[in-house]
Structure formats: structure tokens, C-alpha cells
Design a protein that fits this description.
Blueprint lengths: L1 H36 L3 E6 L6 H5 L9 H12 L6 H12 L6 H11 L4 H4 L17 E6 L10 E6 L8 E8 L4 E7 L16
Antiparallel strand pairs: 1-2, 2-3, 3-4, 4-5
Helix pairs in contact: 3-4
């Protein structure tokens, strides 16, 4: 009887180990599948950049029905700051939806871009330190996600890549369920990048 119990226990333990291994393998495969499916990128092309809110609203991306579209437009709008700050705030107000750009956000953006408008242009295809961050035309910007971009319901963090930075930069967005539109929540992509080569005394 004791021998039978020993064999029974060994078999039971082995079955448990195999079951646990199968569950772990399945979970790992599922996680990999999710991660693979959530490294999506989208590119957007603009023949010209809007300089006022009416031009912005005329763009097909202005439907804001995807976080990718809103992210691309956020960069497009910021390119106008040096030309016309008031028009830029109006466009950002549109991209922020129910909320307007507050004074703290305006001060932050102005401080980050003061004398460094090239930061916003650096997110477009073809813009590099060597060419003074002059984008290729038409203007093309690529927006990407990572496996954690949409972890929280109605929130997203998407990424744009600068030609003067080593890692993608984030923009945080929030979805309004009643309209299924994505709005800018926090512009986190304006940290310093490599300065244009022509401005670099050590280049």
C-alpha cells in the first residue's frame, strides 16, 4: 500500500508540474502575441503645416478618432509656435478637447522651445542635426506605440522619434468615450536633443 501511495504521489506531482509548465507556456505565448500586436506604427504626411485652427480642422486627421492622428497633429501644431503663438494655442485648445491649454502648460512649452523651434521639426522624416533639422517635403511623421501604450482604459501614451535623440519621446492622450475622440493630455516630448551641427562649436 505504501508503495502504491508513493507512486501515486509521484505521478500526481509530475502531472502538477506538467500542468503548471503548460499554463506558464500559454501565458508567455499570449503575452508575446499581445506585445507583438501592440508595437504598431502609423505614418502621416502633410503637404503643408497648418497655421490656424481652421486649417487644422480641414485636415482629415482632425477627426481625432485615433490616438495616432492626435499625436501627429500635436507635433504639427507645435511647429507654428514661433510664427504665431496665439494661433498655436487655439490649435492646441482644439487638440485638448474639453480642456484648454492652461498658463502653466503654455509657459512650459514656451520655455522648452525658446530658441529651439528645431525640436518640433526634428520629428519629421529627413530632419537631422547635419541639415539643421530641415524636414523632407511633403512632411512625414511616424507615431508608434509599445506594449504598454494602452494599458489604462481611455488613456494612451504614444511616441514620436526625433532625428536628434536616441529614444522615442512620449505624448500622453485621453479618450472621450461619448465621441470616441482622443485628445492631448500631456506633451512630454520636448526635452533637449542634439543641437544643429551648424550651432555646435565642437562639431
Amino acid at each position: 500500500m505504501a508503495l502504491f501511495d508513493t507512486i501515486k504521489n509521484q505521478v500526481t506531482s509530475q502531472l502538477k508540474r506538467e500542468a503548471s509548465k503548460a499554463v506558464n507556456n500559454a501565458a508567455q505565448s499570449a503575452s508575446q502575441a499581445i506585445a507583438k500586436g501592440r508595437n504598431h506604427t502609423e505614418s502621416f504626411t502633410f503637404t503643408s503645416l497648418p497655421t490656424n485652427v481652421e486649417q487644422l480642422k480641414a485636415l482629415p486627421e482632425a477627426s481625432l478618432d485615433s490616438a495616432f492622428k492626435t499625436t501627429a497633429l500635436c507635433i504639427v501644431v507645435l511647429c507654428n509656435l514661433e510664427k504665431d503663438a496665439n494661433a498655436t494655442w487655439e490649435m492646441l485648445d482644439y487638440l485638448k478637447g474639453p480642456e484648454d491649454v492652461n498658463e502653466r502648460e503654455k509657459a512650459f512649452i514656451k520655455e522648452r522651445l525658446a530658441g529651439k523651434q528645431y525640436k518640433t521639426l526634428s520629428f519629421f522624416k529627413g530632419a537631422t542635426p547635419d541639415n539643421g533639422y530641415t524636414p523632407a517635403t511633403p512632411y512625414t511623421i511616424t507615431v508608434s506605440e509599445n506594449p504598454y501604450s494602452f494599458d489604462e482604459e481611455n488613456w494612451a501614451t504614444l511616441y514620436v522619434t526625433s532625428g536628434g535623440a536616441d529614444a522615442p519621446r512620449p505624448i500622453k492622450l485621453r479618450r472621450k468615450p461619448s465621441t470616441n475622440q482622443w485628445f492631448v493630455n500631456d506633451i512630454q516630448c520636448l526635452a533637449d536633443i542634439r543641437i544643429p551641427t551648424e550651432q555646435d562649436a565642437w562639431a
